[in-house]
Amino acid sequence: MKTSATASEPTLPRPTMEDVAREAKVGRMTVSRALNQPELVSPESLAAVQAAIERLGYVQNLNAGSLASNRSKIIGAVIPTIENAFFSDTISGLSQALADKGYQLLLGQCRYDAAEEMRLIDAFVGRRVDGIMLIRTSTPAEVDKRIRRCGVPVIEAWDTSNDQIDMRIGFSHRDAGAAVARYLASKGRRNLGFLGSMDVRSTGRLQGFRAGAKQSGLHKIEAITLDRPMGINDAPEIFDRLLERRPDLDAVFCSSDMLAAGVLFECQRRGICVPEDVAIMGFVDLPIAAATHPGITTIRVPSLEIGKLAGDMLLDYLEGKRPANPRIDLGFTIVERGSA
Asked: Which listed site, 21, 180, 317, 336, has its alpha carbon 20 to 30 Å from 222?
């Protein structure tokens, strides 16, 4: 009895630029110009090359071009996590700015691990990226030293407080925290709490929150911080711990809108009236902040604009245009809603 088997199709050799030239009946130099300087090619030849590329499935070897120009046309971005929508907005803005100039984005998440952050920076430099956008996880001196020696322009996003990196864009987390404390004090709140993580930005907001409270005559802030980002599902447990420590709590500042929403839902479950009994404030102004009832008063930050301007600054730097102001503070806004 005979059995039959269907043989898999053999893998075809990858089309080359010479293959495209033969198919289009033009010279190899014309194909190169059509790919890299199409404005220098006649419309007829350009159409012939593009049709040949489509028929053959040709993909340009970008490594060859990068070796000749010493440019990879790739920008690396190191972020703490892709799970937070506010970082995603910044990456979206960066990607838009790069695409407009023909650059690609290489993304890595360090998951709030300083050692992984350094490994990613080294890996990007090893892959010859043209520049790096960094949303920092930590501030050890060795990271600053590594960045300054990496040989490519680096811009730190989402913070303006670090003086060790040449280009910075974002806002002051310390000022944001202080503004929240002053706002809550102006509403007559006296017993303040803070819920957040121990990453460098959340810590900055807590420092500012304490300073703003002190300026307002409030000297005791009860804070609960975890060594990881907190989300909506963490709210019941950590809010319960906060109430145990501060039964007279009348206002809480959360390190994210998602956490603030979780605290709001927990208050409603417990029969705690918001804002009459406890005022709640969030951070970033995600869509959920406006969707809850009451809406969540929060700090709005320009997440998308940070990414776009970071990309523009890096690309200008690569074109030899040094920024007149390497430190751009885009500020923040308090968005007042029903929760505080």
From this structure: 336
The answer, yes or no, to whether residue 67 has pLDDT greater than 90, is no
Mean pLDDT of 239-252: 95
Q: Which of 60-69, 91-100, 166-175 has the lowest mean pLDDT?
A: 60-69
Rounded to 5°, the CA angle 207-210-327 comes to 40
Amino acid type, 16? T
DSSP bridge pairs for 119: none
The Cβ of residue 328 has, within 10 Å, a number of other Cβ atoms equal to 19
* CA 51 – CA 54 distance, rounded (Å): 5
> CA distances (Å), 324 to each of 133, 166, 222, 316, in order?
19, 12, 42, 11
- 3-class secondary structure, 335: strand
Q: Tell me the two tokens of residue 25.
A: 């009946």
Which of 35-39, 41-45, 142-146 ranks highest by mean pLDDT? 41-45
What order do you get walking across the sheet with 221-226 strand by strand? 221-226, 192-197, 251-254, 279-284, 297-300, 333-335
Structural tokens at position 291: 């969707």
The predicted structure's pLDDT at residue 144: 67
For 84, the 3-state DSSP assignment is coil
Cα–Cα distance list, 150 to 15, 147, 217 (Å): 36, 5, 46
What totals of helices (H) and strands (E) does the chain contain, helices first?
A: 13, 12
